[in-house]
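Long-time lurker, first post. I've been practising inverse folding by hand and with some scripts of my own, and I keep getting stuck on stretches where the structure tokens seem ambiguous. Below is the full token string for one chain I'm working on. Before anyone asks, I'm not after the true native sequence, just a reasonable design that respects the backbone. If someone could post their per-position residues I'd love to compare against what I wrote down in my notebook.
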């Protein structure tokens, strides 16, 4: 064991010490919203699912903004937060829409194909980003996964205008199109890195929440 390895072991913090980090708490709040979205998606309460999905994005964007403005965070803090974000993203933007698609499709076997594609492309997209990061330091390669939830909760606004069978096809097609964009070579800006975009998302989140709460009651 080298001296550097020994020093790392000696000063290695506890696992739960990272829970005290505000950006990580924000990430975990987003995970809680995701769990609610999955829960209501399985129950078929889709308007509540939409609320959980958009709030998961809001917390995801907020944690990055908070982390960039905090001083005194170590390299380990940033590395841990980055890993936590990736793991939560696969649940928020991979598992959640896959379950939404399966549930809305009445868990018919044909919807398993779409669910697998959503999860597979999400995993590939996140693995690619973890390996190569931003293209040129400013843009994503492929559509970032958080955009999927932003778009899906918007598409769901029109769910009541067509039959359930027709909308299940619209949802299926939308998920496949988004999955294709996720692993494409298109370059997209990092929207969450701009405070103006974060505040814009906050307004969008509140508007979406009020609309779907109104639909629920």
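-- Answer (accepted) --
I ran through it position by position. Result:
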């Amino acid at each position: 064991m080298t001296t550097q390895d020994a020093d790392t072991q000696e000063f290695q913090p506890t696992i739960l010490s990272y829970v005290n980090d505000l950006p990580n708490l924000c990430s975990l709040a987003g995970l809680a919203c995701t769990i609610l979205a999955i829960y209501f998606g399985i129950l078929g309460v889709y308007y509540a699912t939409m609320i959980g999905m958009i709030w998961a994005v809001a917390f995801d964007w907020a944690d990055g903004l908070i982390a960039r403005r905090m001083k005194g965070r170590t390299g380990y803090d940033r590395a841990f937060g980055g890993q936590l974000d990736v793991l939560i993203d696969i649940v928020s933007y991979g598992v959640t829409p896959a379950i939404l698609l399966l549930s809305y499709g009445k868990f018919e076997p044909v919807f398993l194909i779409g669910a697998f594609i959503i999860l597979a492309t999400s995993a590939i997209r996140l693995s690619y980003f973890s390996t190569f990061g931003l293209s040129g330091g400013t843009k994503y390669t492929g559509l970032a996964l958080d955009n999927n939830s932003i778009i899906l909760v918007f598409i769901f606004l029109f769910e009541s205008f067509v039959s359930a069978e027709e909308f299940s096809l619209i949802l299926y097609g939308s998920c496949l199109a988004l999955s294709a964009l996720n692993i494409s070579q298109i370059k997209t800006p990092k929207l969450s890195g701009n405070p103006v975009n974060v505040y814009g998302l906050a307004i969008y989140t509140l508007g979406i929440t009020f609309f779907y709460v109104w639909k629920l009651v």
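A couple of notes from the structure itself: The chain has a mean pLDDT of 91. The longest strand covers residues 139-141. Happy to go over any region you disagree with.
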